[in-house]
Design goal:
Layout (H helix, E strand, L loop, with lengths): L5 E2 L12 E6 L3 H13 L4 E6 L2 H10 L4 E5 L1 E2 L2 E2 H11 L5 E5 L4 H10 L3 E4 L5 H27 L3 E5 L5 E4 L1 H7 L6 H4 L14 H17 L3 E8 L6 E12 L5 E10 L1 H20 L5 H12 L6 E7 L5 E8 L5 H10 L10 H7 L3 E3 L4 H8 L16 E9 L2 E10 L8 H25 L1 H42 L4 H33 L7 E3 L1 H19 L2 E5 L7 E3 L1 H17 L6 E9 L2 E8 L33 H11 L3 E5 L7 E8 L3 H4 L26 E5 L3 H12 L4 E5 L2 H11 L3 E4 L8 H9 L11 E5 L4 H10 L3 E4 L4 H11 L8 H8 L2
Parallel strand pairs: 1-12, 2-3, 2-4, 4-7, 7-8, 20-22, 26-27, 26-28, 28-29, 29-30
Antiparallel strand pairs: 5-6, 9-10, 9-13, 11-12, 12-13, 14-15, 14-18, 16-17, 17-18, 19-21, 22-23, 23-25, 24-25
């Protein structure tokens, strides 16, 4: 509100088109006739009702309403002030013009304070003066009615007071808010203190507000103060900004005070909260010592927010420990500590600290009942003698978060005789907890620095051991591959040994490829980028495909494979290739650890709603102490340099993750060393509703099973091969030419563009990683050419960049297919034939497998 006093501007009154009902109160008949005659000469249409006394006038007003009242100040046994008071008590809102035989400035002020709209000295009474006064009174009355209508429509408290400061009006919002009953104006204006009723205004604010109101009224200056007003709906004391401005006439005389009460409770409390939280941030971050941080936290909480408080911390799945407890009465702290020591929070409790730690959801209980306390504290309550000193009546418990996990809880309690917490208290404690959790977590990290350092040293040793294992597992097949290839080049091997050499090279190549695939799968698992192509799959199909893949290895080692695969009608929603990989890993693992003459059995079980797959072997078994660790990455029962079996310890970790992605479970059991092992895989069956309308069931083939193609399937096909590695170019050239293709080679993107324009090949096979300009740039430049220059030539990205994002990037750049290295020559021929339409019967699943990384 502006500090500038508001004055009434002399605007024209609206034309009076209806007849005025006027009450003339005067005991002198001559004066009444004079007034009647003067009214007749004005431009006003008036119906006059006469009264010779104030009492008679009141009777007329009880019977009907009047537009305006002309009141003689001096009546027999009565004066104008008495009549004005009685009219106000009656609740009359009609404007009153007082006629007085003698007048003064002081008299005018008193009359205006008493409620008169205007006054006229009878010695100056004329038709013009009378008409002007009546019109002015009606204009002011109309303005007042409009103002009051507006005040009733406003969503805040509006009030008015007379020139003497005594209130004469409150809008309905005031009565709805305070629960007070409306009273006649004369009763309301009996005292200036009525503006601030003692049962509505907080006692601590009453004296200050009344003092400021008195100062403003005497000085005629704008009034403003802050005070708490009780809200009747819930009994809450809420801060309001109470303001008032004086309304003055053209001569500067105060006619009325116009005031408002604006609810500022939220803003005021928010400002106090911000100040408190700023102080809390400064205090809590000033030290890294846990004890100092917790002590300062308790000082912030007590007694401002409660009677006692505690901080509980939990490391991983360990027990809950009470890191801090404080009470406004320090003598009660040992009792609280003993209570927690003897009765720690129950992990299954549905209320209290345990629930907050378990769910991460804050708990506010405004009124703690015996049932809630016994559920949360159990026997910790004890007999009612001692616990009465610490028994909470209301509490707030909020979680403490760090790195997206709950590591503790902050508990603030009020005694039964104290406060009762609400939503606003919960918000404040949560804000304080956010600052406290940072400080506490920093202190925890500070205390854990040495342990973390030790852990880092252990991690470095584990990394070195892993790299040594990777080096060993990669070098072992490389040695066989390099040795046999050099022997073949020397020409010293006979036909039989040459065939054995080629088999050894191929076998070790597959071993090395599998090692790399396992490492890539683990990378996808760690980064959360493992993708499944979900569709209905018959369990028996992928189990048989896995059996076909390992049958040769089992026969070579002398291990018997047995299968119990009863037919069933259900299917699984899953990725056929990944499910085959799971079973293949379990079978390969079982064969590896089963000695010659042993047996590996795979069983298919149909259970209601699920399918069970068991892989059992008669091998060396697993020590019971290690059963809980075998599914961890890089873990092996024997990881020493003298171990009998190689590998990186990744297969079972991949099995567990793929199983969980399919919504299943995997467990291992063993009676101990020498008693074999049993792996039990459980997968949910697809529901009937989800199976309807789905894609056809996937027909799964063994991993090594590749469709055969005619030797001349690529005859006449012109292929441009782009790779910066000469050996790769030569290999691809030999493979493609053996099937009838005409091959052009390029070792860079620039050379590839030149040969493309020269030969216009039917298809392009390009590497991605090349010096200077990579395959992405090459294909984008090719696609930017005009159509007539071969911009739409089909292209395959053949690359060692095998991640899912690499495939996506290649397809977005303009390649039609993405094929990861290494690739079997036969598979490359299939992909090329499929892309160019030379073998339409190629199974689409083979294409999809080769496109996925």
């Amino acid at each position: 509100m502006s500090d500038t006093p508001v004055s009434t501007s002399p605007v024209e009154a609206p034309p009076l088109t209806e007849r005025l009902r006027l009450l003339l109160v005067d005991d002198d008949e001559v004066d009444r006739l004079l007034v009647q005659r003067l009214l007749g000469t004005t431009g006003l249409a008036v119906d006059v009702v006469e009264a010779t006394s104030g009492s008679e006038a009141l009777e007329h007003l009880k019977a009907r309403s009047f537009d305006v009242i002309l009141l003689d100040f001096f009546l027999p046994g009565e004066d104008g002030f008495w009549v004005l008071r009685e009219l106000g008590r009656l609740g009359s809102r009609s404007p009153i013009v007082v006629l007085t035989g003698q007048g003064s400035e002081q008299m005018a002020v008193e009359l205006m304070k008493a409620g008169a709209s205007d006054y006229i000295a009878k010695s100056r009474l004329s038709a013009e003066r009378l008409e002007q006064s009546l019109r002015q009174a009606m204009r002011l009355h109309l303005a007042e009615q409009r103002h009051r209508a507006l005040a009733e429509a406003l969503p805040q408290i509006v009030w008015t007071a007379g020139p003497d400061g005594r209130p004469d009006y409150f809008n309905q919002r005031w009565y709805d808010y305070t629960g007070l009953t409306p009273r006649p104006a004369a009763v309301e204006s009996g005292s200036a203190a009525t503006l601030l009723p003692r049962d509505v205004i907080h006692a601590d604010d009453m004296a200050g507000c009344l003092g400021r109101w008195s100062e403003s009224r005497l000085a005629g200056a704008p009034f403003e103060c802050e005070g708490r007003i009780r809200r009747h709906a819930d009994g809450a004391w809420r801060w309001h900004l109470i303001q008032a401005l004086p309304l003055r006439n053209a001569h500067g005389r105060i006619l009325q005070w116009l005031g408002t009460c604006t609810d500022i409770d939220d803003q005021k409390r928010a400002a106090e909260t911000l100040s408190f939280l700023a102080e809390a941030s400064t205090m809590l971050t000033a030290s890294l010592e846990m004890s100092v941080t917790l002590e300062r936290l308790s000082a912030l909480l007590l007694p401002r927010l409660g009677d006692w408080c505690a901080v509980y911390l939990q490391d991983d799945d360990g027990p809950v420990r009470q890191a801090m407890v404080a009470h406004v009465d320090a003598s009660r702290v040992p009792l609280l500590r003993e209570q927690h020591r003897a009765f720690p929070p129950s992990a299954t409790a549905s209320h209290g600290v345990a629930r907050v730690l378990r769910t991460g959801v804050p708990e506010l209980v405004p009124e703690l009942t015996d049932a809630v306390l016994h559920e949360a504290l159990g026997e910790a309550l004890g007999p009612t003698g001692d616990d009465a000193r610490i028994r909470p009546g209301s509490w707030i418990i909020v979680p403490l978060w760090a790195q997206r996990r709950v590591f503790g809880a902050l508990k603030v309690c009020a005694l039964p005789s104290g406060r009762r917490y609400g939503a606003r208290d919960l918000e404040l404690v949560q804000e304080l907890a956010r600052r406290a959790e940072i400080a506490i977590d920093n202190a925890r990290l500070f205390e854990m620095a040495k342990a973390e350092h030790l852990g880092a040293e252990q991690a470095n040793r584990a990394k070195d051991e892993f790299l040594a294992a990777v080096s060993h597992e990669l070098r072992t097949p490389l040695m066989a591959m390099v040795g046999w290839t050099r022997m073949l080049r020397s020409g010293q091997l006979g036909p039989e040994k040459a065939a054995r050499a080629l088999e050894a090279v191929e076998r070790n190549t597959q071993v090395q490829t599998q090692l790399i695939e396992d490492l890539l799968d683990v990378s996808r698992i760690i980064t959360g980028k493992m993708r499944l192509e979900i569709r209905p799959v018959v369990p028996g199909m992928f189990i048989e495909a896995a059996l076909d893949s390992v049958r040769h290895a089992a026969e070579a080692k002398g291990v018997t494979l047995c299968a119990e695969l009863p037919p069933g009608t259900g299917s699984i929603h899953g990725d056929a290739d990944r499910l085959q990989q799971v079973v293949w890993n379990l079978l390969s693992n079982a064969i590896k650890f089963t000695p010659r003459g042993g047996q590996v059995t795979v069983r298919l079980r149909w259970v209601e709603g699920h399918v069970g797959i068991e892989v059992q072997d008669t091998g060396q078994g697993i020590p019971r102490a290690y059963l809980g660790q075998i599914f961890e990455r890089f873990w092996q029962v024997d990881g020493s340099s003298t171990r009998k079996h190689g590998g990186l310890g990744l297969g079972l970790a991949i099995v567990r993750h793929l199983t969980e992605l399919h919504g299943g479970t995997i467990e291992a059991t063993s009676q101990g060393e020498g008693h074999g092992a049993l792996f039990r895989l459980t997968l949910p069956l697809a529901t009937a509703a989800s199976s309807r309308g789905s894609t056809p069931l996937v027909q799964v083939q063994a991993r090594q099973e590749v469709p055969s193609l005619d030797s001349g399937v690529l005859k006449g096909l012109q292929v441009l091969v782009v790779d910066d590695e000469p050996d790769a170019l030569e290999l691809l050239t030999v493979v493609l030419e053996s099937r009838g293709a005409q091959v052009f080679t390029a070792s860079s993107a620039r050379e590839a563009l030149e040969k493309h324009q020269l030969h216009r090949p039917h298809v392009i096979i390009s590497d991605i990683g090349m010096p200077g300009e990579d395959g992405y740039s090459f294909i984008r430049r090719l696609r930017a050419l005009p159509l007539a220059q071969g911009s739409q030539t089909p292209a395959i990205a053949l690359t060692a960049f095998a991640r899912m994002e690499d495939r996506t990037r290649a397809l977005l750049a303009g390649f039609q297919m993405h094929v990861p290295k290494p690739i079997e020559p036969a598979e490359l021929i299939i992909v090329l034939a499929s892309l160019t339409g030379r073998h339409p019967r190629v199974d689409s699943q083979v294409q999809a497998v080769r496109q996925a990384p």
